[in-house]
Specification:
The protein is built from two helices and ten strands. It is α+β, with helices and mostly antiparallel strands.
Length: 166
């Protein structure tokens, strides 16, 4: 009888140790998965981005690339420079892969589309400055903003925080 009790205790102890090892392995695998996760991988659904120069920007993620995040917010569309993002609040989903073509889209694509529409846009720069105008010419790393017919400014893409259009 004592032998039965001893073997039962040893078996229970072995089961506890196996369970602890499995839990440790699960924790290690989960930590490894998070170690490979970029903040851009979390951009799905409704998000609030803290953006240098612009403050909180809220919307539903339409596209996320290494260079920019396009959010839809009611009637407006906001494109945010990933380099200006300081915080991210998400609902906890995972972003879908934009694909090989959409994943390479950057500011040139955004501004060429806006230039063709000739609609007013609002640019917010990382220093907090806001420029309202229409898009003129699009260079390789800068965009011309027509503020008035007499006043035009070139804005380097590195200075951009957000671009808002209707």
């Amino acid at each position: 009888m004592r032998w039965d009790r001893l073997f039962a205790e040893l078996e229970a102890q072995a089961d506890d140790e196996a369970l602890a090892e499995r839990e440790a392995l699960v924790d290690e695998l989960e930590a490894g998965e998070w170690a490979d996760t970029s903040w851009r991988d979390l951009l799905a659904g409704d998000v609030v981005l803290g953006v240098r120069g612009a403050g909180p920007v809220q919307g539903r993620v339409a596209l996320a690339t290494p260079a920019l995040v396009r959010l839809e917010d009611g009637n407006a569309e906001v494109v945010v420079a990933t380099s200006a993002v300081s915080t991210v609040r998400t609902a906890g989903g995972r972003a879908s892969d934009p694909g090989p073509v959409a994943g390479r889209l950057g500011w040139g694509h955004v501004f060429r589309a806006l230039a063709g529409e000739m609609d007013p846009v609002a640019l917010t720069l990382v220093d907090g400055q806001r420029l309202d105008g229409i898009i003129g010419h699009v260079g390789s790393d800068a965009v011309e903003v027509v503020l008035t017919p007499e006043r035009r400014l070139w804005v380097p893409w590195s200075a951009l925080a957000t671009v808002r259009s209707r």
